[in-house]
Design the sequence.
């Protein structure tokens, strides 16, 4: 099955045109390289309501399989992407951000500072990545193979035995 993806960049500066978004296109290229069709890209400001609205639109209206955000996962007062994500998901997938943080810690001791979250809304998996292009690519690379398998499980009709994988 061909899976769709959306890449949502969360950045005040990018949304105002003060900075060029490099993370979103880099993540899109990685997803396409893994076989996803990137059906939607967007840039939104670091505003809880805007982030929630975009996530809900992707999941509920556009029925996108995988939504990946970049940005808004740090310690700044305006970094609210994880909170917006947690407000709209129905089931948590804590292993995904745990794996990303683990991989980041192999590169830098600051990897533990990521507040990334992940969860499922309907049949859509939502994953937060850091905002810097380098960190976003490193984090996505750490879980990309697992995300493809997650799509197989999430989009299957009923439960199935995946123990043979």
Sequence:
């Amino acid at each position: 099955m061909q899976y769709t993806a959306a890449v949502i960049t969360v950045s005040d500066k990018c949304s105002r045109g003060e900075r060029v978004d490099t993370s979103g296109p880099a993540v899109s290229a990685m997803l396409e390289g893994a076989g996803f069709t990137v059906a939607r890209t967007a840039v939104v400001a670091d505003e809880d309501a805007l982030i929630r609205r975009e996530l809900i639109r992707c999941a509920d209206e556009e029925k996108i399989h995988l939504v990946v955000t970049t940005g808004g996962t740090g310690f700044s007062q305006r970094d609210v992407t994880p909170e917006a994500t947690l407000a709209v998901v129905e089931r948590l997938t804590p292993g995904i951000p745990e794996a990303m943080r683990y991989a980041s810690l192999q590169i830098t001791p600051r990897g533990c500072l990521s507040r990334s979250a992940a969860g499922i809304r309907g049949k859509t998996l939502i994953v937060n990545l850091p905002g810097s292009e380098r960190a976003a690519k490193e984090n996505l690379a750490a879980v990309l193979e697992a995300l493809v398998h997650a799509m197989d499980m999430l989009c299957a009709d009923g439960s199935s035995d995946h123990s043979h994988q």
In short: The chain has one domain: 4-155.
